[in-house]
C-alpha cells in the first residue's frame, strides 16, 4: 500500500518517507505550523502539531514579563529580579527608551519598568522620592561576591576600592552588601524552619535533596501537556 502524506494527503512516491507522530510525510510537506518553514534536521511537536525550534519556544517556552510572549532560546534576554524580558521589552513604559546595562530603573508591581528620570520626575510631582535600582553586570557582581566572601562587612576603604574597581556608586556598593547580609540571614532562618519541618513530617532523612540550577529560556517549557517532543528527523526516514 502506498502511504499518503499527512500534509498534502497525496501518495508518497519519494524514495524516502518521513515518519513523524506516527504519520507519514513528504520531506517537503513537513513544515512548522506557525512560520511554514520546511523542517529538515529537527522539529518539535505538541498536541499533534509540529513546530520549528523558535516557534515552539515562542508558544511554550519562558514568557517575557513585558509582553507575555514566549522567548525563543536563540534570543538574548535581560533580567530584573526573577523576571525575564526580550531586549526590546526591557524599556521604560513612559519614554519608551530601551534600558541598557548600568541604567538605573524602577521595577513596578505589574513588572513594568520605569527609568530613573521619569520615575523621579513623577515622584517629584507627588513630593516623594525613592532610590532607584541599578543594573549590575555579571563582572561587577562577580567582583562584589568575591569581596563578600572575604568579608561580609568590609571597611570603608574596601568599599571605596570596590567602587573604583566596578564603577558603581559607593552607596550602591554599601546597599548591595547590606542586602546580601540580610538575604543570607533570612535564608539561614528559613532553611532551619524547612529542615526541621521536613524532618518531623517525613521521619529521619538520610539524604537531603537540593534544588536544581537556574534554567535558560530554551530549557523551561510551559506546562499544559505531557506530549511535548523533540524529534531528530534524521532518524525518522524510512525507505519505501
TrEMBL record:
Residues 202-240 are annotated as: Disordered. Keywords: DNA-binding, Homeobox, LIM domain, Metal-binding, Nucleus, Repeat, Transcription, Transcription regulation, Zinc. InterPro entries: HD, Homeobox_CS, Homeodomain-like_sf, Lhx3/4-like_LIM2, LIM_Homeobox_TF, Znf_LIM. The keyword Transcription applies. It is found in: Nucleus. This is LIM/homeobox protein Lhx3. Residues 127-187 form the Homeobox domain. Residues 3-62, 63-125 form the LIM zinc-binding domain. PANTHER family: LIM/HOMEOBOX PROTEIN LHX, LIM3, ISOFORM G. The keyword Metal-binding applies. GO terms for cellular component: nucleus. The gene is lhx3_2. Residues 220-240 have a biased composition (Basic and acidic residues). GO terms for molecular function: DNA-binding transcription factor activity, RNA polymerase II-specific; RNA polymerase II transcription regulatory region sequence-specific DNA binding; zinc ion binding. Pfam families: Homeodomain, LIM. One of its GO terms (biological process) is neuron differentiation. Residues 129-188 bind DNA.
Amino acid at each position: 500500500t502506498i502511504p499518503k502524506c499527512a500534509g498534502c494527503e497525496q501518495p508518497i512516491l519519494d524514495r524516502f518517507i518521513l515518519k513523524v507522530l506516527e504519520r507519514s510525510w513528504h520531506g517537503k510537506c513537513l513544515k512548522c505550523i506557525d512560520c511554514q518553514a520546511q523542517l529538515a534536521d529537527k522539529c518539535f511537536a505538541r498536541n499533534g502539531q509540529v513546530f520549528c525550534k523558535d516557534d515552539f519556544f515562542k508558544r511554550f517556552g519562558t514568557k517575557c514579563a513585558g509582553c507575555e510572549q514566549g522567548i525563543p532560546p536563540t534570543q538574548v534576554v535581560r533580567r530584573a529580579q526573577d523576571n525575564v524580558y526580550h531586549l526590546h521589552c526591557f524599556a521604560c513604559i513612559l519614554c519608551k527608551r530601551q534600558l541598557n546595562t548600568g541604567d538605573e530603573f524602577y521595577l513596578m508591581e505589574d513588572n513594568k519598568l520605569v527609568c530613573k528620570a521619569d520615575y523621579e520626575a513623577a515622584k517629584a510631582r507627588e513630593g516623594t522620592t525613592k532610590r532607584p535600582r541599578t543594573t549590575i553586570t555579571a563582572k561587577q557582581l562577580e567582583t562584589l561576591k568575591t569581596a563578600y566572601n572575604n568579608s561580609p562587612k568590609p571597611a570603608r576603604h574596601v568599599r571605596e576600592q570596590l567602587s573604583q574597581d566596578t564603577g558603581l556608586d559607593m552607596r550602591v556598593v554599601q546597599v548591595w552588601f547590606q542586602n546580601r547580609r540580610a538575604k543570607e540571614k533570612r535564608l539561614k532562618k528559613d532553611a532551619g524552619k524547612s529542615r526541621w519541618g521536613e524532618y518531623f513530617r517525613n521521619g529521619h532523612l538520610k539524604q537531603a535533596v537540593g534544588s536544581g540550577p537556574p534554567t535558560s529560556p530554551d530549557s523551561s517549557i510551559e506546562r499544559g501537556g505531557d506530549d511535548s517532543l523533540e524529534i531528530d528527523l534524521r532518524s525518522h526516514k524510512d525507505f519505501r
